[in-house]
Amino acid sequence: MGLRPKPHQEEGRSPSSWTSIPVFQSFFLWNDISLGLRPKPHQEEGRSPSSWTSIPVFQSFFFMNPFLRKQKITTAFSTASTYHTQAKVQLQVANNLARHLHNLDLPPRPYILELGCGSGFLSVHLHKHWPDSRILLTDIAHPMLLRCRNTLQIPSNQAHFATMDGEYPAVNAGWDLITSSMTVQWFDNLPTALHRLAALLNPGGWLMFSTLGQETFQEWRHLCDQSAMTCGTPHYPSSDQLQAMWPTTGQGQVTEERITQQHPNPWAFLQELKALGAHQAAHNHQPATAGQMRRLLCHGNPNPGFSITHHILYGHFRQGN
C-alpha cells in the first residue's frame, strides 16, 4: 500500500495525518512498482502541498530492454538477505553522506524523499536528525523496503514507504530534500535523471547523493585487461563529468573520496558483490566463459590478498530560488 497525507488542518505546512492508497502493478514495469505518490497543487499560502494523490506510471513497451536490466537489478537486491550485515562500504558511505546532510539549512519540518533506501543505512540518520519531517522512503526492491522498515522500528505515521524506481520518480514537485546513497549508479541515464529530480525540488531545495566514480574497482578492471577478458563493470563518471551534469536551474558541486577494501582473493570480491545484490554487469556486456573466468581467478592474482577501490562521489545540488 502507498501512502498519502490527508489535507491538514493544523497551522503550517505539515499534514496532520496520513492515509493509505492502493498500489497497482504495471505489466510494463516488471510487476514491482507502485503507482507512487505526489502532492496535489496547494491552495494555501506558501510552497507546501496540502494533500497527496496517486498517479499512474507507465513505460513504453518499446523501451523494454533497459527495463529488463532494471528487473535483474530489482531481483538481485530483493534476494540480498544478508545486505544489512555485509554492506560495510555502503554503511560507511551513508554515514559520510549523513554528515553532509546535517549541515543543510532545511525548514523545521521538511519534506524529504529518499531514493534507494535499501535496508535503512541513511534512513536512520534522516529520521534521527529530522524527527518531525514528512519523509517518504522508496526503493525499487520491495523486500528492501521491508528491511528498512524493520531497521527503523518507528511508528507508521513517522515514515512512509513506496516501491519506486528512483530514476523515474512517481511524485510531484514539493520536496525540500531529495537524497540517495549508492543508488544513482544504477540509473541508465544519469544526466537526464538529475534534471528530472531537480525539477521536483522546492525553490532552495537540495539534491544530495553519493555514487560510484570512475576509479571504482580499477584493480578488477586491471585483472580483466591482463587476462584479455572484457570487464563487466559499468562505466562510472569522473568528478568532472558529474560536475558537468548539473541542471542549469541551480548550483552543484562534487566532492570525492576513495575507500579501499581488502579481500582474501578476487573470488571473495565477486562473491561479496553477489551477496550484496550488486553484481549486475554493464548493459550489453557479454559474460566471460567459464574457462576465461577460471584462468583469471587462478592465475590473474598470484599474490595473497586482493585490494579493491571504491571511488565515491558526493553530489551536492541546490535548486535556485
Q: How is the topology of this model organized?
A:
Blueprint: E1 2-5, E2 18-21, E3 38-39, E4 52-53, H1 64-78, H2 83-86, H3 88-101, E5 111-114, H4 121-129, E6 134-139, H5 142-152, E7 160-163, E8 175-181, H6 190-198, E9 201-212, H7 218-226, H8 239-243, E10 250-263, H9 266-276, H10 290-299, E11 306-319
Parallel strand pairs: 5-6, 5-8, 6-7, 8-9
Antiparallel strand pairs: 1-2, 3-4, 9-11, 10-11
For the biggest sheet, the summary is: 7 strands, mixed
| Coarse shape | globular
Strand content: 15-25%
Give the SSE order as H and E letters: EEEEHHHEHEHEEHEHHEHHE
Placed side by side, the strands forming the largest sheet appear as 7-6-5-8-9-11-10
Radius of gyration: 20 Å
The separation of the N and C termini measures: 34 Å
- How many strand units? 11
Instruction: Give the uncertain stretches in residue-range form.
Output: 1-65
What is the number of helices? 10
Structural class of the secondary structure composition?
alpha/beta
Q: Percent range for helical residues?
A: 25-40%
Chain-averaged pLDDT: 76
Question: Would you mind describing this structure in some detail?
Answer:
The protein is α/β, with parallel strands linked by helices. It is built from ten helices and eleven strands. The protein has helices spanning 64-78, 83-86, 88-101, 121-129, 142-152, 190-198, 218-226, 239-243, 266-276, 290-299, and strands at 2-5, 18-21, 38-39, 52-53, 111-114, 134-139, 160-163, 175-181, 201-212, 250-263, 306-319. Strands 7-6-5-8-9-11-10 form a seven-stranded mixed β-sheet, sandwiched between helices. Helix 6 (190-198) links the parallel strand 8 (175-181) and strand 9. The longest helix is centred in the first third of the chain and has 15 residues, at 64-78. It is globular, with a radius of gyration of 20 Å. The two termini are 34 Å apart.
